[in-house]
From TrEMBL:
PANTHER family reported in the protein's UniProt record: BIOFILM ARCHITECTURE MAINTENANCE PROTEIN MBAA, DIGUANYLATE CYCLASE DGCP
Matches recorded under NCBIfam families: GGDEF (TIGR00254), sensory_box (TIGR00229)
InterPro entries: Biofilm_reg_signaling, EAL_dom, EAL_sf, GGDEF_dom, Nucleotide_cyclase, PAC, PAS, PAS-assoc_C
Pfam family, one: EAL
Annotated ranges, domain GGDEF: 307-441
Protein name in UniProt: Cyclic Di-GMP phosphodiesterase RmdA
Domain PAC: 225-277
Length: 714
């Protein structure tokens, strides 16, 4: 069995070892591989830290790229091997237990930053070398001048032996002399070059200041200048150079000649362009990637007054199913085909398509009138996805959800626009998918608030921001308080008191409902114990039972029974004083495994209530196999009883449910009682207990205690 690294430092060392072994064979250095490893270790450590930083900063990638150049790993193959090494091993050895998808996304951005850092460091190193050559050439000016007066042989030795191209011209621009290196760069004879004038060497890519600097030099206003310049060769190809032009003066200081030093940078420029392309384009589909898209979007948002933008954020529906069933190779081919179709949809000026990652794509259109154009673009995308895609002999139907954001430039940042598009896309997906929706500021605000509540939930429980209100359960026969239902509330620092419907679904989604439900159960049972002690523990003066709601997630949690037993034993409350409410929809089609915990609790003496009965379309015959003792009739059946006369159909339905429940030895509780007439009608129909605003709204435990004392003294 091979030994595994013991900790993060060991894993970091292992990653650095793999990196150094990958690049050492193509490194031009006198260092040993172990010494190279020590040189790369700080960069590797920064890459690992960037994976886990709270705010991601790709600067670690740029630093790592510069470290390669400093270690003399300047061969393009060293960069390629480094990118492969990061892609394969950085997350494996430095990722830890983080979110794998987020770590992979950060790793990809670090690779792009590393390539950019490598190119920039290589460019700086080249410029430094060029400057050194230029300085040497300038220093050689004196030697050349002396050689002209002393010996032609010494001048020729310097002139012809130089590794860079050298040319001398008069102040009118006529070429007088060129060396062999310059002839080889241009691929021309000496006679052809000496017949040229430098003013003929214009190129469309010349920077505006190039010829301005030239004019200043020949007028004697400057001694030298350094630029990057392109030249056309006779065969039509382009020669890119780092050009340094210096002014040669006579003994009296008057301008006499101009000396040009040229270094061929064509191959280096092509490498930089390739690195730039790889850093800004998706390797799988060839589309612009997230980095390139953000550059274009920020440019569009910074456009002048009167300019607008339109953005379509596309996510494929059910793409995970393709990966899971047919494999990632098939999924990749599907993405390539989708990318080709999307590319054909955005061909007009100002339009582009990019892949953000995974199965997420974005299309951008710009111009003065994007309201209509963005809708048309979205329609073209949806139409392009209609035709099935053939993968491994299977015809796959592609569906997609699109979020559209359109507006004037200059009002929002790129991050805000993309967030709005993302929210809108998920709104389209939640509406069934295969459609597009237009961004709505109010819907965005609700989604952002919902996200804020979700992220605040874990710490809210730790900070004690939750509290419980209690609504009494009243016996319809004598009007006495028989118990109370515990209803949790959230006292949010910014939003005030939030009702359960605002945060319980979020707690269910995040799994926090389990610790929150355990807290509610314990607090409610403790309160029941406090009521019993305060009221003397008599059945006539204190709530006999506390009702606590259970969510579907809690039902499936393996610690439900043990937690309940421990809370009851710790507080000294009898199981019969506790009733757990479960919604009817949670038990539809429930198998024996799901019902087993409820049966164990029922056998202990804990009552189980079937909440919202009548809304889940359950089979009434299933009531016999459910371990319930109480039916809580949904308020929708009794709303008509608030007016006189009541709907006779509702009366018959309630009467039938009550009769069936009593025949099964089940008690019936009614929710939402708001009028005395409603309460009386329900009493006549045989309902056992009720709760609602007619008796009391949910409130603090002291209010329930007052109601209980009032019953005891009446």
């Amino acid at each position: 069995m091979s030994a595994q690294p013991d900790g993060p430092e060991d894993r970091l060392r292992r990653f650095t070892t793999i990196w150094s072994r990958a690049v050492f064979p193509v490194t031009s250095t006198s260092s040993t591989r172990a010494e190279l490893e020590e040189q790369l270790l700080p960069a590797a450590r920064r890459l690992g830290e960037a994976l886990h930083a709270r705010v991601f900063d790709p600067e670690a990638g740029r630093t790592a790229g510069a470290a390669l150049v400093e270690a003399h790993c300047t061969d393009p193959d060293a960069l390629s091997r480094t990118l492969d090494c990061l892609d394969s091993y950085l997350v494996l050895y430095c990722g830890g237990d983080g979110d794998c998808e987020d770590l992979r996304a950060r790793c990809a951005r670090l690779q792009h930053a590393l390539a950019a850092g490598f190119a920039e460091a290589l460019r700086r190193r080249t410029l430094a070398e060029q400057e050194a050559i230029a300085q040497a050439a300038l220093r050689a000016q004196g030697v050349v001048a002396q050689a002209l007066h002393a010996t032609e042989a010494r001048f020729r030795a310097v002139f012809e032996g130089a590794a860079i191209g050298i040319g001398i011209a008069d102040l009118e621009g006529n070429v007088l002399q060129v060396n062999g290196a310059l002839l080889r760069m241009f691929g021309q004879s000496e006679q052809a070059l000496r017949g040229r004038n430098v003013l003929q060497w214009t190129h469309p890519d010349d920077a505006p200041q190039v010829w301005k600097l030239y004019e200043e030099l020949v007028r004697g206003e400057r001694d030298h200048y350094h630029v990057e310049k392109a030249f056309y060769r006779p065969d039509g190809t382009v020669l890119w150079t780092n050009l340094t032009v210096s002014l040669l003066r006579d003994a009296d200081g008057n301008p006499q000649y101009q000396l040009a030093l040229m270094e061929d940078t064509t191959e280096r420029r092509l490498l930089n362009l390739r690195l730039r392309y790889e850093a800004t384009h998706d390797a799988l589909t060839g589309l612009p990637n997230r980095t390139f898209f953000f550059e274009r979007l920020e440019k569009a948002l910074a456009a002048g007054e009167g300019q607008r933008f339109g953005l379509c954020y596309l996510d494929l529906d059910g793409f995970k199913t393709v990966n899971d069933s047919l494999g990632h190779a098939a999924g990749d081919r599907l993405l390539v085909e989708v990318a080709d179709r999307l590319q054909s949809c955005a061909t007009a000026p100002g339009e582009m398509v990019a892949r953000l990652g995974g199965d997420e794509f974005v299309a951008l259109t710009t111009g003065p009138d994007t309201r209509r154009k963005v809708d048309e673009l979205a329609a073209r995308i949806m139409n392009a996805l209609l035709a099935p895609i053939s993968i491994d002999g299977r015809e796959l139907t592609v569906r997609g959800s699109i979020g559209i954001v359109e507006g004037p430039a200059g009002e929002r940042s790129a991050a805000e626009v993309l967030r709005s598009a993302d929210i809108t896309m998920y709104r389209a997906k939640s509406a069934g998918g295969n459609r597009f929706e237009v961004a709505d500021p109010e819907a965005d605000a609700r989604a952002i608030t919902r996200h804020g509540l979700t992220t605040a939930l874990p710490t809210a429980l730790e900070r004690g921001e939750f509290f419980i209100e209690y609504q009494p359960l009243v016996h319809l026969g004598d009007g006495s308080v028989r118990g109370a239902e515990a209803l949790v509330r959230w006292l949010h620092p910014q939003h005030g008191v939030l009702s359960p419907d605002r945060f319980i679904p979020l707690a269910e989604h995040t799994g926090l409902i389990v610790p929150l439900g355990r807290w509610v159960l314990e607090q409610s049972v403790r309160q029941a114990r406090a009521w019993q002690e305060r009221n003397g523990g008599t059945e006539a003066t204190g709530p006999l039972r506390i009702n606590v709601n259970l969510s579907p997630c809690q039902l499936t949690h393996p610690g439900l029974v043990q937690d309940t037993v421990e809370i009851l034993e710790r507080t000294g409350v009898e199981p019969s004083a506790l009733c757990l409410e479960v919604t009817e929809s949670a038990l539809i089609g429930a198998d024996d495994d799901l019902l087993k915990p409820l049966r164990r609790l029922a056998e202990m003496g804990v009552d189980i209530a079937l909440d919202d009965f009548g809304t889940g379309y359950s089979n009434l015959a299933n009531l016999r196999r459910l371990p319930v003792r109480v039916l809580k009739l949904d308020r929708s059946f009794t709303q008509s009883m608030q007016q006189f006369p009541a709907d006779p159909v509702d009366l018959k339905i309630v009467e039938g449910i009550v009769s069936l429940a009593h025949s099964l030895d089940l008690a019936v509780t009614v929710e939402g009682v708001e009028t005395g007439a409603q309460a009386e009608q329900l009493r006549i129909l045989g309902c056992d207990t009720a709760q609602g605003w007619y008796y009391a709204r949910p409130g603090p435990p002291e209010r329930l205690h007052e109601l209980t004392l009032a019953d005891a003294t009446s």
